[in-house]
Structure formats: C-alpha cells, structure tokens
C-alpha cells in the first residue's frame, strides 16, 4: 500500500473503549488534524499508563500504518490482544495489515474473529473493517460497503460512518451516492470539514481539477486550521499534472504548486516528526520534485537506520541529480535488501531498472555512430545480461503502474538517440507489448521496427567479407532474426486503421520494412518479399503527392523492384522500374 493512500484516507475514528476521555480525545483530535507525531506520543503514554487497555494499542497501531510500518503495527496489535483479549478490535488491525500484504484470506479470518461476538451497539469494528478495505493496496469498495452499511444500522450518529461510506462510493465511481453520503455527514455535524473536503475530492475524481482546487481553496479559507485540506490540494495539483497531454512546463508548474500546498499542510498540522518528513519525501517522489527531494534526503540521510525508504530517496537523487548511476544502483539495491516487499512501490522497480541500464550502458565507438555505420557501442556479455535484467525490472514496475509506460518510452527514445540500439529496441518492444495503451503503442512499434532494422543491417554487414560472402553464419542468422522482428513491428504501422499513426509513420515504416526484407533476402536467388512493401511505398507516396519530399525513397524502391525482376529474367517488368528510378534522379549538368 502506498503511504499517500493511507495518509489521504485515515479518518477520525469513533470512540473505542473507555480510556481516559480527555487523553483519548486529544489523541483523536491529533489524528483528525493529521498530526500523527503528536498522536503517537499521546498514545504511547496511554499504553504506558494503561497497559491492560487494548483499545489504546489499536489507535497506536493505526499510527504505524499511516507511517507505512505494517510489521511494527502488527506487533502493536498483537500486544493489544495479549494485554486485553476482549479488545478484539486489534484483530481488525491485524486484518488490515494482512490486506496491506495482499493476503485477503488471512484478513477475512481476522475480521471474522473481530465481529464474531458483537453486541447490538458495537459498530466500531465494522467501521474499521470498512476503512481497511477502502485503504488496502487492492481496494475492495463493495466489501467495504457491506461492513459500513452494517455499522450505519447500529449507529446513525457517528459522523465517521457516512464519511467512510462516501469514500467507498467514491472508489466505486458512484459520485452521486458519495456526495449524498458526505451530505449525510454534514447533517450529523454541520461543522465537519472532512465531509466538505470529501465532496471537493469527488469533483477531482471527474478530472475537473480547476473546480476541485477552487472548492478546496474556499474550504481552506473558511477553516484555515484544518490541515488535511492543504494535503488534498497538493494531491489535486499532482494528479492534474499527470493528465495525459500535459506539457512539461505545465507539469512543473502544477507540481511546484502542489509542493507549496504540502509545505502548508505540514506547517498547519504542526507535525515536525521524522515520520512526517518521510511522508513529505514520499509526496515529492510521486510529484517527481527532485530538487526538493534532494534537500529532504540530505537531512534524512543523517538517520539511515530509521527507514529503508531513505535509500529510495538517495537512489532517486543519485540518478536524477548527480547522474551517478552505479551509486543509484547501489542505494536502490540496499533499499530492496532492507525493505519489506509490500512497501516497495512501482517507481522503485522503474528506477532500479533504469539504473541497471544506465550503469551498464557502453561507450560509443570512437567517432560516434549513425544509422548507416556498422560500428556500434560495445556491449559485453555482462552488460547485456544486466541491461536485460533492468528491462525486466522496469516491466515489473509497469505491470503495477501503467503510468510508467510514458517514462519507459522516454528512456527508450533517449537510448535510441544515443545509438544504444539494442537497449532502445528492447525497451520499445516492452512498451509495444502493452497493446491496450494507445498513447505509446504506435510510436513504440515504429521505433522498435526501425531499431531492429538497424541492428540487423549492422549484423548482416559484419557477417560478410568485402566480397559480400557470408563468413559468419551464426551472425547472419541473428541478423535475419532481427530483420524479421523489424518487419513484424513495422507491419503494425502498415495495417493499423489509426490515421494519426499512418500519417506520421507509414511512409518510413514501409521503407524500412522493405529494406529489412531486402537485407534478409538472398539476392542471387531472391524470394522477393521486399517487392510488395516497395510497391506499396511507391503507391503511398504518389497518393499523398509527396514525390519531391521522398524522391530518394522512390529511387530506392524502383531500383530494387527492377533488380528483382532483372534477376528473375522478367525483363519487361524490369524495364518498367529502372526508368522510373532514373526519372527521380537529379539531372546531371554538363561541365
């Protein structure tokens, strides 16, 4: 579970147990204000003063959950059960931990224990189970509604219940029902800022970000001391920045505003704890604000034993700011070795993979490389293995968060421009494998095809001597395989009905597809698979009236079509093509 998800959703809990009202009230008020450092201190004191009261442990365990410390929370909940077996709400806490670890079966068994002997008025475990299903890394909003509906039947006066129902309906994208539930909360407590914020967040869910910000700013102006409003503003700016089609300038602008709101949130909440700084760093990670993250990371690095997340921050900064890729890889490997698997986020796999690729990327051949050169950056066997491992790690990240496809595509294009063609081709191939994502699908297929063509062409050249006789059959076979891959990817462009993709790529795709087939062929006894692509290339150029712009393509196409028919002894067809090739050549001027 992401820390932000827990942080954004933790609500004021209903009264649990009968510990000192004032002390518990103070702890709950601190939780509502999201000053978890203060709440933790109060609850630790309560546990010390009243070690036999299991309810105190439940609240304390919740603070550890907010701070993304599931194992520590489990320890606290177990201590609560040992100290007070009747306080079965700690079983809810343990079930919540199971959900964080994606063990639903175990969670359900814990929840069954917690609800087995509820009295007529006992609703708190039902409320907390509902919240647990809402906040789980794999939310089950329908399941949450089951428990929250039962809680509402038992208690119609606790404002926390309709707020949680609103959260569940919002998760199900039932905006009208969510809005009504938050309205029910304001009927119970007209001063409930939490409910008003919930209604504004519904608007955000409809991607009406400017309207959501207007509403949240109005709430902040009306109740400036309610810290969570500023956090929601920060999250709104961040979500807006991730909207497809957002320009780089707009992305930076929105996230800077988000960071300012998060700073305001920390200021108003008054939480100066180390855990609060870690949560702030988490937000900076999601907002990709690496300058601010660098400042926080340097401070947190003074306490490297506090949380393995620190190695995440150091790794990201080493990659983004210092460009020290081996160091980034070192930090991230430390994080993976020390952090519980359920605390790893998709972006960690992305950065681990990018660091592995960057740390193993070869130097360019001296003098550079281009699309026509046979020289290429040198990859050792170890480099190749590590780069492929990096690509596999990036895939893990994408499988968990499809938004990372964009970053993968950017990395692929960067490697393509640097002429690290094998790495680029593998990354483009990875992006192209996610066929349901049309944003990057056709770009990835085109560049994968072009990259594999260049790889195959260079391998083919290297497999032959100066007389064009194959002297390395193994390399020639690999060339043919890569050239066939090129044709497969480029065919996607040729056959799609996506007009934008065809307008952008079709002519080049047909050209490289034809040359991939030509290079893979045996021109002494040609099969001629390249002819159809060259013919379609000529037709497409003529249909678009783009002859002048693509005259070199027309020269090549007619030349090789003519050559094919000449070798096949079909001289009439050969004579049709050769003059067309000549007609596109520049006129020679007499001296």
Structure write-up:
Pfam families: TPR_19. TPR repeats lie at residues 54-87, 555-588. Keywords: Signal, TPR repeat. InterPro entries: TPR-like_helical_dom_sf, TPR_rpt. This protein has 591 residues and is an all-alpha fold. 72% of the residues lie in helices and 0% in strands. The protein is built from 29 helices and no strands. The longest helix has 25 residues, at 438-462. It is elongated, with a radius of gyration of 31 Å. 48% of the residues are buried. Mean pLDDT is 88; it is low at 1-21 and 364-376.
- Overall pLDDT: 88
Largest sheet: none
Measured between the Cα atoms of the first and last residue, the distance is: 77 Å
Class derived from helix and strand content: mainly alpha
**Morphology call:** elongated
Give the fraction of residues assigned to helices.
Answer: over 70%
Q: Indicate the low-confidence ranges by residue numbers.
A: 1-21, 364-376
Keywords: Signal, TPR repeat
Signal peptide: 1-21
TPR repeats: 54-87, 555-588
InterPro entries: TPR-like_helical_dom_sf, TPR_rpt
């Amino acid at each position: 579970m992401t820390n932000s998800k827990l942080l954004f959703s933790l609500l004021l809990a209903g009264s649990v147990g009968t510990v000192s009202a004032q002390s518990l009230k103070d702890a709950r008020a601190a939780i509502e204000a999201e000053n978890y450092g203060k709440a933790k201190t109060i609850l630790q004191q309560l546990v010390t003063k009243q070690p036999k009261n299991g309810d105190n442990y439940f609240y304390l365990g919740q603070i550890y959950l907010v701070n993304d410390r599931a194992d520590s929370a489990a320890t606290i909940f177990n201590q609560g059960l040992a100290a007070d077996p009747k306080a079965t709400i700690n079983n809810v806490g343990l079930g919540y931990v199971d959900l964080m670890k994606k063990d639903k079966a175990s969670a359900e068994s814990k929840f069954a224990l917690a609800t087995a002997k509820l009295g007529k008025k006992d609703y708190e475990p039902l409320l907390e189970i509902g919240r647990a299903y809402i906040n789980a890394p794999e939310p089950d909003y329908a399941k949450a509604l089951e428990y929250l509906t039962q809680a509402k039947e038992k208690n119609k006066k606790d404002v926390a219940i309709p707020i949680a129902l609103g959260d569940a309906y919002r998760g199900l994208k039932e905006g009208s029902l969510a809005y009504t539930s938050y309205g029910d909360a304001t009927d119970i407590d007209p001063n409930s800022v939490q409910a008003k914020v919930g209604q504004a967040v519904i608007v955000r869910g409809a991607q009406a970000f400017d309207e959501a910000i207007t509403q949240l700013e109005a709430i902040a102006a009306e109740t400036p001391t309610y810290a969570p409003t500023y956090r929601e503003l920060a999250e709104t700016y961040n979500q807006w920045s991730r909207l497809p089609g957002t320009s780089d300038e707009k992305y930076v602008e929105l996230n800077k505003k988000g960071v300012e709101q998060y700073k305001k949130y920390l200021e108003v909440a008054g939480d100066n704890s180390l855990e609060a700084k870690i949560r702030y760093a988490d937000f900076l990670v999601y907002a990709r604000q690496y300058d601010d993250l660098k400042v926080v990371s340097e401070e947190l690095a003074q306490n490297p034993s506090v949380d393995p997340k620190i190695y995440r921050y150091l790794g990201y900064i080493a990659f983004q700011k210092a460009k020290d890729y081996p160091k980034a890889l070192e930090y991230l490997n430390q994080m993976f070795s020390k952090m519980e698997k359920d605390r790893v986020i998709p972006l960690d796999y992305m950065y681990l993979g990018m660091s592995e690729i960057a740390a193993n990327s070869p130097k360019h051949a001296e003098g550079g490389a281009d699309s026509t050169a046979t020289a290429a950056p040198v990859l050792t066997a170890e480099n190749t293995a590590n780069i492929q491992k990096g690509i596999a790690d990036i895939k893990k990240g994408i499988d968990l968060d499809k938004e990372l496809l964009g970053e993968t595509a950017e990395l692929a294009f960067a490697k393509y421009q640097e002429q690290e063609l094998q790495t680029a081709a593998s990354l483009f191939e990875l992006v192209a494998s996610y066929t349901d994502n049309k944003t990057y699908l056709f770009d990835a297929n085109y560049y994968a095809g072009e990259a594999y063509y260049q790889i195959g062409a260079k391998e083919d050249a290297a497999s032959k001597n100066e007389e064009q006789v194959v002297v390395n059959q193994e390399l020639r076979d690999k060339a043919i395989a890569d050239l066939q891959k090129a044709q497969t990817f480029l065919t996607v462009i040729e056959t799609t009905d996506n007009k934008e993709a065809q307008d952008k790529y079709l002519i080049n795709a047909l050209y490289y597809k034809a040359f991939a087939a030509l290079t893979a062929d045996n021109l002494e006894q040609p099969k001629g698979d390249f002819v159809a692509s060259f013919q379609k290339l000529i037709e497409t150029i003529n249909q678009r009236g783009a002859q002048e712009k693509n005259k070199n393509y027309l020269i090549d196409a007619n030349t090789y079509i003519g050559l094919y028919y000449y070798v096949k002894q079909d001289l009439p067809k050969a004579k049709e093509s050769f003059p067309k090739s000549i007609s596109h050549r520049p006129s020679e001027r007499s001296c």
